[in-house]
Amino acid sequence: MEKVVEVKGLTKKYGRFEALKGIDINLYKGEIFGFLGPNGAGKTTTVEILEGLRKPGEGEIVFFGEKIHGSIPAHVKEKIGVVLQETRFLDHLKVKEILELFSSFFKNSKTPEEIIKMVHLDEKAESYVDNLSGGQRQRVAIATALINDPEIIFLDEPTVGLDPQSRESVWGLIEALKKNGKTVFLTTHYMEEAQRLCDRISIIDNGKIIVSDTSQNLVKNYGGKSEIDFKCDRIPSQTIIDDLKSFINLVDDHFRIETDDITKTLEELVEWSKRYNLSITNISLVEPTLEDVFLTLTGRGLRD
């Protein structure tokens, strides 16, 4: 895949405090890259450096094959779109007027009409921003980041505070960006969001990237075991329990099996129940998630 951003050994200090301790990041064309970490881990510093909002310390940053020295030059910023965690607009401006204003900041840009259609705000083009819902305002924010037709879009927690319908709408926009060949750098506190959208994920903690991989591989390698809970029509004897290859725990009024292979274990469970004429009911499966991975690797939740 074509590499569009390469970061090597990036550091940043605030006085004696090391916010970044030599991190490496690669971004590829047409991917959604997730950047996760606890508060204070170095996420914001990293993103602001790559957005050109903060000067880097030591290390190397390359955009589109061009090594960056100091601040990101204007011609590179022309290829970057940014959605901040919180974006405020002048309430007395209409949606179309805001996009006309933002388009004037760039040498080349799409028309406001094109972007309005892209973010599904056709019916709100002549509406004032203060009359929009939270989800609609966030789509306006994304629209301003797309007006220059960027190759890379940085999205900093784009769905915070949105209701499920609005969040789903924003997810659809992000997926559409990928289909159009755009590269998306996504930071989020929502694990289901990262697991659904991201092709690759890096987790940063204490200024260091501790792991980078696909969400599937992260869950497989660090998420822990899956659980199968079930009930039987009667309590089997210990001899019968011991005949099941998988180890069974009795939890309250049901049984629990921990396994690395749900399919194989379920097959064994069915054969075992038939062998001893046991009726199994209330089967539920609990598989590890990206949240489990995060807790395993950092030892604390994202919202600490």
From TrEMBL:
Cited InterPro entries: AAA+_ATPase, ABC_transporter-like_ATP-bd, ABC_transporter-like_CS, ABC_transporter_ATP-binding, P-loop_NTPase
Gene3D superfamilies in UniProt: P-loop containing nucleotide triphosphate hydrolases
Q: Name one Pfam family in it.
A: ABC_tran
Q: Which residues, by range, are in coiled-coil regions?
A: none
**Which residues does the UniProt record annotate as the domain ABC transporter?**
5-231
The listed locations are: Cell membrane
The highest taxon in the source lineage is Bacteria
Which UniProt keywords are given for this protein, alphabetically ordered?
Answer: ATP-binding, Cell membrane, Membrane, Nucleotide-binding, Translocase, Transport
Q: Name one GO molecular function term.
A: ATP binding
Q: Which GO terms describe its cellular component?
A: plasma membrane
Mostly located where?
Answer: membrane
Family affiliation: Belongs to the ABC transporter superfamily.
Return the PANTHER family for the record: ABC TRANSPORTER ATP-BINDING PROTEIN, ABC TRANSPORTER ATP-BINDING PROTEIN NATA
This protein's name: ABC transporter ATP-binding protein
Q: Which organism is it from?
A: Mesoaciditoga lauensis
